[in-house]
Amino acid sequence: MGRGRVELKRIENKINRQVTFSKRRNGLLKKAYELSVLCDAEVALIIFSGRGKLYEFGSSGVTKTLDRYQHCCFTSQENREEYETQSWQQEVIKLKAKYESLQSTQRQLLGEDLGALNVRELQNLEKQLEGALTQTRQRKTQIMTEQMEVLRRKERQLGDLNKQLKI
């Protein structure tokens, strides 16, 4: 059974007002989170209580969302293009850094550039290499087993063929 409509007016009782604020604030924050997850939406929510306390939620950061909002609403097409260009440039910088990091990791896996690593990093690298070696050996064993099965089948077929030819 549902509740009836609530008359929208200021709650006079201070305690009831605070309880209602807390419950509805939490519900609103939950709805904002659910909207961001379910619909892959970028959501920012800012709430100031009656006492001036700040509550906020940002699916990808409130500041980032506000910046995006300002760029969408307060800039001309040229500024928007410039903003997009800057965004792409930042993305390129991030990708270059990731590429360099991956290259460094690859060199370390090949045994190069190990001088800058401490003991813990070297131990982690050793564990990674041992894990990769184990997987490689397992795959090699699997392939060899499959090849042996194929050769055994051929051997049986040739043996059967040889028997038929002798007969």
TrEMBL record:
Please give the SUPFAM superfamilies that the UniProt record associates with this protein.
Answer: SRF-like (SSF55455)
GO terms for molecular function, please? DNA-binding transcription factor activity; protein dimerization activity; RNA polymerase II transcription regulatory region sequence-specific DNA binding
* InterPro entries associated with the record: MADS-box/MEF2_TF, MEF2-like_N, TF_Kbox, TF_MADSbox, TF_MADSbox_sf
User: Which locations, inside or outside the cell, does it occupy?
Assistant: Nucleus
Please tell me whether the keyword Coiled coil is annotated for this protein: yes
Q: Which residues form a coiled coil?
A: 119-164
Q: Which CDD domains match?
A: MADS_MEF2_like
Q: Give yes or no: UniProt keyword Transmembrane.
A: no
Q: Which GO terms describe its biological process?
A: carpel development; positive regulation of transcription by RNA polymerase II
- Tell me the ranges covered by the K-box domain, including all copies: 85-167
The entry's keywords: Coiled coil, DNA-binding, Nucleus, Transcription, Transcription regulation
A GO cellular component entry from the record? nucleus
Domain of life of the native organism:
Eukaryota
- Give every MADS-box domain span: 1-61
Report the protein name in the record.
Answer: MADS-box transcription factor
